[in-house]
Amino acid sequence: MAFNRTKRQFFIDAGVILVILIAAGVFMLVKGNDLPGWDIKGEEERIEDEEREFEENVYIRDGGSLVMENSTLSIRSSFDGEYGIFVNGDSTLQLNNSEIEGDGERYFITADASDGKNPRLSFNKSRIRGDSEMFVRN
Fold first, then answer.
1. In this predicted structure, what is the pLDDT of residue 19?
2. For position 98, what pLDDT does the model report?
3. Closest Cα to residue 72, out of 92, 45, 52?
4. Which of 5, 52, 111, 123 has the most other CB atoms within 10 Å of its CB?
5. How far is the C-alpha of 49 from the C-alpha of 69, rounded, in Å?
6. Helix and strand element counts for the chain (H, E)
7. Is residue 50 over pLDDT 90?
8. How far apart are CA 80 and CA 97, in angstroms?
C-alpha cells in the first residue's frame, strides 16, 4: 500500500516528536546528575570569536549560562532530533552577533520553565539556522 506524501510526512514528524520527547524525558530523569554531553551547571561558559562543532547535547542548568560572542555553534546530528540544547531552570542562553546552525539533521532548543524557574533566551543580532525546532515547557 503506497502512502501519499501527507501520510508519510505525518509518520516522519511523529517519529521526530517521539525522539524529542524521549530525549527530554531522559534529561528530566537525570537533571540532578552529570549528563552526557556538554553540561554547563551553575557557571558561565563563553564562546568568543570562534566556530565550534558539537556531536552531543548541550545542557545549561542550575543557574549556568552559555554566552556566545561573534561565534558559530554547529550541531552535527546523524538523525532528526538526535542532539539539541536544553536550557533548564534559572539558566541562560545568550547569543550576541552569533549563530547556532544545524549541520545535518533537525536539532532542537528546549527551555524548561517548570517548578517556578525562569530560563532566559537572549538573541541579539543573532540567528538560528538549519532545520531546527524550539520548545518551551512550563
1. 66
2. 97
3. 52
4. 111
5. 6
6. 1, 13
7. yes
8. 27
For 11, residues 6+ apart whose C-beta sits below 8 A from its C-beta are: 3
Cell of 79: 538523525
Q: What's the residue count for the chain? A: 138
Express each pLDDT in 68-102 by its tens digit: 999 999 998 888 888 999 999 899 999 999 999 98
Say if residue 10's pLDDT is above 50: yes
Distances (CA, A) of 116 to 48, 112, 119: 31, 10, 10
What DSSP character marks residue 3?
Answer: P
Q: Which amino acid is at 123?
A: F
The whole-model pTM stands at 0.74
